[in-house]
């Protein structure tokens, strides 16, 4: 999927919502445990209930790995079930030397047909490039994350006054384009998003940290939106675990609908 | 496993060899493809042939993930097969916000009983600490890697003249001790290992990059060894793919034996 196709979907759905499929056996409604593959059944019903409101789904691979081979199967089945025109993100935060990154890319791009994968930048160019060499696939590189530990290294200033996350943004633009490279940019502080947008005017940002983690959607849009929207804002728990009863999918839809309505307004206001 | 137990095994085997189980269906001997689980069968024969020479085994998780749920099963079977007194490393380079890192830790420490996992530092304290809270388990944190891309960010100097990898070494020592935290330190340049050893006198280093990647074992020992050895030196392809015939396990043993013999001399010379 290229940038304009993604933008077209954003315009059609009036939404830049990404739904995080952080699916946890201990949190899904009890009645689903009777199914042969409860994780897939949960995802399937969430997808059915929200696919006209979300432009992306983002399974966090840790939740599936924690279940071993069976979890891996649930993940593959989920990927097969997501409609092809919806952008899919393997939130895997991989990154290793070249031949190893190539294998991770095969696992997520070829075997499971994800559109994109989140990648950690620490090991540099040859850990990221193998993912970028897959036609039509995307890297979403960690730049400025929304967790407490982002202060430890991402904010360290180099001799020329630039924080590490800025080096990551600048250097990585030599490796890929706005058509195969996005960035993870945390939503906890609006002013940082504005700073990142100045450095990277054209690329999409994947923004976690709205909702449970406390960021404001309006601030994200105000400081981060560009002429092609340029934002995918993720919500996981706030949508998928809004109810743990038999009505979970309907309640998830209601929550997604609220975010989509807010996004529709923000697109009108800031996407120009 | 604690540091002294690991050192005791190093003394008994006169070896600090870690064997990388980067097991690839396209590279293993053809006759193994008849088995129901060729990946496990290959690992089993390699382990049988080398377990008196190696103090650690390090499966690279990418090779298993590339095979989907089946690969994940081969990995779990391999872990069950490795004798309990040998240190096991999940070379997974994980790292995510707290609740996600906790799930990765469960996947590798509880479900598969690995002794340790490699972790990427970019997201800081709350991405690393969840792994450190598992009693008797280890984090092996990426510090200075041996690949070309290590130059991109790891060597960036902050205002006070310290490269990023030094910040990672110093900061992370607040999070764990020499009994649950090791570092990945590349072997491509001896003088860097000496520098890292000055900053971190007591911790173990996992050293990739000897053999196929070109580092010198003698230099690594000279600059990196401490009174408890403090080194696990990995070799993958140079051992496990030394032959692709029916004699692969015996030839792997011969290669491991050569490295062990060299290590025995280096322990006598530098471990004091």
TrEMBL record, chains A, B:
<dbReference type="InterPro" id="IPR001754">
    <property type="entry name" value="OMPdeCOase_dom"/>
</dbReference>
<feature type="active site" description="Proton donor">
    <location>
        <position position="93"/>
    </location>
</feature>
<dbReference type="InterPro" id="IPR011995">
    <property type="entry name" value="OMPdecase_type-2"/>
</dbReference>
<protein>
    <recommendedName>
        <fullName>Orotidine 5'-phosphate decarboxylase</fullName>
        <ecNumber>4.1.1.23</ecNumber>
    </recommendedName>
</protein>
<dbReference type="InterPro" id="IPR013785">
    <property type="entry name" value="Aldolase_TIM"/>
</dbReference>
<dbReference type="InterPro" id="IPR011060">
    <property type="entry name" value="RibuloseP-bd_barrel"/>
</dbReference>
<keyword id="KW-0210">Decarboxylase</keyword>
<keyword id="KW-0456">Lyase</keyword>
<dbReference type="Pfam" id="PF00215">
    <property type="entry name" value="OMPdecase"/>
</dbReference>
<comment type="similarity">
    <text>Belongs to the OMP decarboxylase family. Type 2 subfamily.</text>
</comment>
<comment type="pathway">
    <text>Pyrimidine metabolism; UMP biosynthesis via de novo pathway; UMP from orotate: step 2/2.</text>
</comment>
<keyword id="KW-0665">Pyrimidine biosynthesis</keyword>
<feature type="domain" description="Orotidine 5'-phosphate decarboxylase">
    <location>
        <begin position="16"/>
        <end position="252"/>
    </location>
</feature>
<dbReference type="GO" id="GO:0004590">
    <property type="term" value="F:orotidine-5'-phosphate decarboxylase activity"/>
</dbReference>
């Amino acid at each position: 999927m290229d940038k304009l196709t993604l933008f077209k979907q954003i315009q059609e759905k009036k939404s830049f919502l990404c739904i995080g499929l952080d699916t946890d056996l201990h949190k899904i409604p009890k009645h689903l445990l009777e199914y042969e593959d409860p994780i897939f059944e949960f995802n399937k019903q969430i997808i059915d209930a929200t696919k006209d409101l979300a432009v992306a789904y983002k399974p966090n691979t840790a939740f599936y790995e924690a279940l071993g081979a069976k979890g891996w199967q649930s993940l593959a089945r989920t990927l097969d079930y997501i409609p092809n025109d919806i952008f899919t993100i393997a939130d895997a935060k991989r990154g290793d030397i070249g031949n190893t990154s190539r294998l991770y890319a095969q696992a997520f791009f070829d075997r499971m047909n994800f559109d994109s994968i989140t990648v950690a930048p620490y090991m540099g160019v040859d850990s990221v490039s193998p993912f970028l060499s897959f036609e039509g696939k995307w890297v979403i590189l960690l730049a400025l994350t929304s967790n407490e530990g982002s202060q430890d290294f991402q904010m360290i200033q180099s001799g020329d006054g630039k924080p590490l996350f800025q080096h990551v943004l600048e250097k990585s633009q030599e490796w890929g384009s706005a058509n195969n490279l996005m960035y993870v940019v945390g939503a906890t502080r609006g002013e940082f998003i504005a700073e990142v947008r100045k450095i990277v005017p054209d690329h999409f940002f994947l923004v976690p940290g709205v909702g449970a983690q406390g960021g404001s959607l309006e601030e994200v849009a105000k400081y981060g939106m560009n002429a092609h929207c340029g934002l995918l804002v993720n919500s996981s728990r706030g949508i998928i675990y809004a109810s743990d009863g038999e009505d979970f999918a309907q309640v998830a839809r209601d929550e997604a609908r609220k975010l989509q309505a807010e996004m529709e307004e923000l697109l009108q206001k800031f996407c120009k």
